[in-house]
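Final report, Chapter 2: Outcomes

The project's central promise was a pipeline that accepts a single protein chain and returns its three-dimensional structure in a standardized token representation, suitable for archiving and comparison. That pipeline is now operational. To close this chapter, we reproduce one record exactly as it appears in the project archive, with the input sequence first and the structure output second.
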Amino acid sequence: MKIRVITGALLVAFFVPMFILGGWALDIVLMLCAMIATWEFSRMFNKEKNNKLILSIQLLFTAGLFLAVKFFLLEEIHVDFVFALVFFFTIVGALLLVFFEEFGADEFGNMFISVYYPVFGFVSIAFLRALDDGLLIIGFLFMVTAMTDTFAYVFGIRFGKHRLAEKISPKKSIEGSVYGTLSAIVLTIGYILLTDLQFIGSIEMTILTSIGLIILISIVGQIGDLSASKMKRDSGVKDYSNLFPGHGGIMDRFDSATLAAMILLFFVMLVDVL
């Protein structure tokens, strides 16, 4: 427990100033997080083979795709470049599938999960930070996911009777999930009023809109947590890595936030289009 608390304090001491600083410093940190997450996925999916060539290709494309998508979202490069990079990565995967005997169908699928999930998760966080009032928006995102997770655990221990997804995470309960979301609504509404967060992109944060977004992000965050647990359980590992003593790896810490950031960014972009 002592190690977990110390590690948690160090993570907060590192990431909070990075989010406050924003800009290129944060982009580099989030790109490195995506690359570490790619390494964690690759290590988990291919723990018996440990092919350094495949890992090297994955890491290169993670960095390249992160930067390409980030610049595209900021309208500094043309979308054709992003698609070209995705197509090229797909072709490389097909070539590996044909010419490398140890590279099978499972490795082909895992190669894409190991790159696309971290890239789009962490680049979504980077883009949300780049919006007007980006720091407040990041605070909103992590407030919802953290409060949901914390109070789902607290209320689940006290009142949990019906399992939410017993085969994936036996300790999680429906009651904990519901109370976690309700707690997130109350506390995050307080955060919105305290910080005077009025817009996320073009989304006006009225009370009803705020509650709707909080519920959505809370649910998606829990899905992110459960999907991460499912992948770990299927791969026979407890944590994605041991990078952070007592906390596991990057994806153990950001499994909820990355998927939640993707859905929040999706709605920001959808409202802008409409």
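Archive annotation: The longest strand covers residues 199-200.
This record, like all others produced under the grant, will remain available to the consortium after the project formally closes.
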